[in-house]
TrEMBL record:
InterPro entries in the record: ABC1_TM_dom, ABC1_TM_sf, ABC_transporter-like_ATP-bd, P-loop_NTPase, Type_1_exporter
Keywords of this entry: ATP-binding, Membrane, Nucleotide-binding, Plasmid, Transmembrane, Transmembrane helix
Entry-linked Pfam families: ABC_membrane, ABC_tran
Protein's name according to its UniProt entry: ATP-binding cassette domain-containing protein
Compartments reported by the entry: Cell membrane
Species name: Rhizobium ruizarguesonis
Domain ABC transmembrane type-1: 75-326
GO MF annotations, alphabetized: ATP binding
Topology in the lipid bilayer: Multi-pass membrane protein
PROSITE patterns: ABC_TM1F (PS50929), ABC_TRANSPORTER_2 (PS50893)
Lineage: Bacteria, Pseudomonadati, Pseudomonadota, Alphaproteobacteria, Hyphomicrobiales
ABC transporter domain boundaries: 370-902
PANTHER family: ATP-BINDING CASSETTE SUB-FAMILY B, HAEMOLYSIN SECRETION ATP-BINDING PROTEIN
Length: 904
């Protein structure tokens, strides 16, 4: 990186800077003329200089020059104007100069603004590019939040300064010098007064502002440290709650905020002191002009026009001068910020940019062996993790690496996956050093997975296919407007030093996964998901999701057939009572009172329970049917039973899991509400109290809660109210509520609800698991499994994949590595969160799945269970950083060595 910001700016924008400096130089001509014109207007037409006689005229706009070697040349003879005409003409010229100066400023400011934004874009990209090239060990020493804050906030002023770096001193300095020169031309002594004050401002103010710069630097550092500390709190929130250290963190944050407050308060005090002195010096000069200039005018040594012109010129002098001083402060401030960025991002050694060059062509298979020669690895403290290990791993070979924790096995696998760099020794393939090989080769032909997982915010599918997104594979199709917009953006990217790669292209290398395109990628994905035992999890996500039938047309078309097939299958297996179907003419005992009343689903978020309850039609229905009183009485009984049964139980008691209508925190609230409502009828309760009580009845399910509150009479009344509700439903409600229909798909309901078209009986043990298993088989039978799987793959995994469990994240991480179909697979205890039985099953699935159909990649696996090493061609046993034993399973298991001890 360039150490000086000014050199960095000049290096990348010198042609644009030269152009804008030329424009600034041209703008000085009309700027100077605008100072001289008021004097001509006052002395000429206004005071009558040159118009002494009646009918006197003067020449306006006479343009003639004496040109060397040519002589006197007259371009325009001018116009003869009387006093009034001359006043109007000069005034119009003054107006024209004002407009012209304004246009110059507009162009200069717009140009330098665009120049600054380009430079900001350039420097941000270069910093992120450097982050992508940091050596792996550097990421253990930096906080991600601090890096992000520097790139987002701390370089922001550098973009604004880029346009001002050379233009502002030229423009503002030119304007100040022009105004000062004009004053000196009018009167030497007034000019010297102005020059003296300017000199004091130029010397004193920058010296005083050095303290401001130091305070600004301290403020920036403390703010960045605060950002990093907040990031640590967010990442470690589980540790904080688990150790009751939230108040320690509050104390730490309060201390940091106090430090920032102290710095900022000191900064404000010093800032306004400097501003006071600067403004005082600026106001002293007009006082001197009025006093001394007025005296000279009274003495006849200075005419009124000159005095007016001098005062007018000085009016424009403090502005550029103040801005020039501000520019110098900004220059120093930005240089300090740039120096901090330089120190943070000037990391050595960086990964060579050639290693990360874009490669769009297919990459050939790695046919050479992994040759590890005298490899040594250390941690940050200098402790030796791997000590002078040499080994060769051939293509197509399966190698199990075993050893106790801290044996060096994990560090060895990290070195093979290029996650750490060797202290000494080499790892080569075909004689090429692994660290010198392009990532287009290692990132495609070598797959690495460990127990540490990270997923980007997005869908399951985008994260699963992330390992295939190496380069744009196809160009997007744009219409004419989009094509022009893309062309403009590409041109701007090129001018800012950014790559012109199109993010809207399809980046997925489908062929690398064994597919021909997006149409059949699921056929390549499904075996991988089955191998890592995550297919059922994704199917469950799909069943709980709503379905866009415009995208998944087949599911919408087959939902009625699926319902019938499910009923037939349940009947054949004697499970026809496990699901109670919806019937418009009957009450569904397995559904809530609210679901029975509505007999449909609401289109959220446009319609919610609260909005429905507040709707006039819904309230009128309750009054006419008398359900308000019935459900109020029912809610009171629910509240009484719940409070009586659960008020003495701790909040974490498992009984609360059975309460769908009330939480442990609600118990005291309803206890107080019941005391208040004793002996009070429905009419005496407030609307808020009625709503709180009736809400309990809406979530009631008799077979689940068993309070004996649902009589046949009340159920018939609810069914009758349901029919009345849908018979006269107004248009605005009908658009937001989808009624259940046995012959069509309900888009606002989940996929499982659509297929069930009913509710699972709560009395049946393991009913939900059995239903999901049957549904999976039905999807397969109707060739809809891939469609359902794609719905599950649309699930948003959240920030860092935190919406998934640790087990799901490790499975997905392993699946992502497998999908690349590499030549070398390196698995570094990738399933540590799973129980040993599941780990063993997945390991067997992967070994058998990867070695079929003539494709036999090399597999290097750091095993948690030494017995699984039986499946591998060779075993490497690590102990205390060294290679203790090596051989095949029969040899090592019969030998009285360390491996035999691990097996026992």
């Amino acid at each position: 990186m360039e150490k000086s910001l000014a050199r960095y700016i000049w290096k990348n924008t010198r042609l644009q800077q030269l152009w804008i400096l030329a424009v600034v130089a041209a703008s000085m001509v009309p700027y100077f003329l605008s100072f001289d014109l008021p004097k001509q207007i006052v002395n000429g037409p206004i005071q009558g200089d040159g118009f002494e006689g009646p009918g006197a005229r003067q020449t306006f706009m006479h343009i003639a020059y004496d040109i060397p070697l040519i002589g006197h040349v007259e371009f325009f003879q001018g116009l003869q104007l009387n006093r009034f005409q001359m006043l109007m003409a000069l005034s119009l010229v003054f107006l024209a100069l004002v407009v012209l100066n304004g246009l110059f400023k507009f162009y200069i400011n717009t140009y330098k603004g665009r120049l600054g934004e380009r430079m900001l874009r350039r420097i941000r990209f270069e910093l992120i590019d450097r982050v992508l090239r940091f050596p792996p060990i550097h990421f253990k020493r930096v906080k991600s939040a601090e890096i992000a804050t520097m790139i987002k906030d701390e370089v922001e002023p550098m973009g604004g300064f880029t346009g001002d770096a050379f233009v502002s001193p030229a423009l503002l300095g030119g304007q100040a010098i022009t105004a000062l020169a004009f004053i000196i031309v009018q009167n030497f002594w007034l000019g010297m007064i102005a020059a003296g004050i300017v000199g004091v401002q130029a010397i004193v103010i920058p010296r005083m502002r050095k303290r401001l710069l130091d305070l600004g630097r301290q403020r920036q550092l403390t703010a960045r440290e605060l950002s990093g500390r907040v990031g640590e709190i967010v990442d470690g929130i589980g540790t904080i709650h688990g150790n009751d250290t939230s108040n320690l963190e509050r104390a730490d944050i309060a201390s940091r905020l106090g430090r920032i407050f102290s710095i900022r308060y000191d900064l404000y005090q010093w800032k306004f002191l400097v501003k006071f002195i600067n403004n005082f010096l600026a106001q002293v000069t007009p006082f001197l002009f009025y006093a001394i200039g007025g005296y000279l005018a009274l003495q006849g040594r200075l005419d009124i026009g000159q005095l007016v012109a001098v005062i007018s010129a000085y009016k424009d002098l403090p502005g550029p001068l103040k801005e020039l001083i501000d520019w110098d402060q900004m220059r120093q401030d930005v240089q300090v910020k740039y120096q901090q960025v330089y120190e943070q991002f000037n990391v050595e050694p960086l990964i060579d940019s050639r290693i990360q060059e874009l490669a769009t062509a297919p990459v050939g298979a790695l046919t050479g062996a992994f040759v590890v020669t005298n490899l040594s690895l250390s941690d940050d403290s200098g402790a030796r993790l791997v000590d002078h290990v040499s080994v060769e791993i051939k293509p197509n070979e399966t190698v199990a690496i075993v050893g106790p924790n801290g044996s060096g096995a994990e560090a060895f696998a990290e070195a093979l996956g290029r996650m750490v760099w060797p202290d000494s020794g080499r790892i080569t393939i075909d004689g090429r050093d692994l660290l010198d090989m392009p990532e287009s080769i290692t990132g495609r032909r070598i797959s690495y997975a460990s127990s540490d997982t990270f997923f980007f915010h997005g869908t399951l599918a985008s994260n699963l296919l992330y390992g295939l997104k190496h380069a744009p594979m196809t160009d997007p199709v744009y219409d004419e407007r989009e094509a022009l917009e893309y062309k403009w953006h590409s041109a701007e990217a090129e001018k800012a030093g950014n790559p012109t790669l199109d993010l809207n292209s399809d980046w997925v290398d489908y062929k690398a996964a064994g597919a021909s395109g997006p149409e059949d990628i699921l056929k390549a994905i499904r075996p991988v998901l089955d191998a890592v035992l995550i297919s059922q999890d994704i199917l469950d996500l799909a069943l709980r999701s709503t379905v866009n039938t415009d995208v998944h047309v087949a599911l919408g078309d087959h939902v009625v057939a699926l319902r019938a097939s499910l009923r037939d299958r349940l009947r054949d297996e004697g499970l026809d009572t496990i699901v109670v179907p919806f019937d418009f003419d009957a009450y569904n005992a397995q559904a809530t009172v609210g679901e029975n009343l509505l007999f449909g689903t609401m289109k959220r978020p446009l319609m919610t329970n609260r909005r429905l309850a507040a709707h006039p039609y819904f309230q009128q229905l309750f009054r006419e049917t008398g359900l308000s009183t019935d459900l109020y009485d029912m809610g009171l009984e629910i509240a009484e039973n719940a409070v009586e049964l659960f008020h003495d139980l701790p909040p974490d008691h498992p009984f609360f899991q059975q309460l769908t209508f009330m939480t442990a925190d609600d118990i005291p609230t309803y206890q107080a509400l019941l005391q208040k409502l004793q002996s009070r009828r429905f009419e005496d309760a407030t609307p808020e109290e009625r709503s709180a009580i009736i809400r309990l009845s809406f979530a009631y399910i008799e077979p689940r809660h068993r309070f004996g509150l649902l009589t046949n009479e009340l159920m018939d009344k609810i069914v009758s109210a349901r029919k009345q509700f849908h018979e006269h439903i107004p248009a605005d409600l009908a658009e937001l509520i989808e009624r259940y229909d046995a012959e069509r798909f309900t888009p606002s309901a989940s996929l499982m609800d659509n297929v069930l078209f009913g509710r699972i009986a709560y009395q049946q043990a393991d009913a939900s698991d059995r239903i999901r298993g049957i549904m999976g088989e039905l999807f397969d039978a109707l060739d809809l499994y891939d469609d359902v799987l794609s719905i599950g793959l649309e699930f948003d995994v959240g920030s860092g994949g935190k919406r998934l469990t640790m087990v799901q994240r490790q499975k997905l991480n392993l699946a992502r590595a497998l999908l690349k179909r590499s030549d070398y697979f390196i698995f570094n205890r990738p399933l540590s969160a799973l129980d040993q039985r599941v780990q063993d099953q997945i390991t067997r699935n992967i070994i058998e799945g990867l070695h079929e159909e003539g494709h036999r990649p090399a597999i290097i696996w750091v095993l948690s269970n030494a017995r699984l090493a039986e499946m591998f061609d060779r075993i490497l046993l690590f102990d205390r950083g060294g290679l203790a034993e090596a051989g095949n399973y029969p040899e090592l298991s019969e030998k009285n060595g360390m491996f035999k001890e691990l097996l026992s």
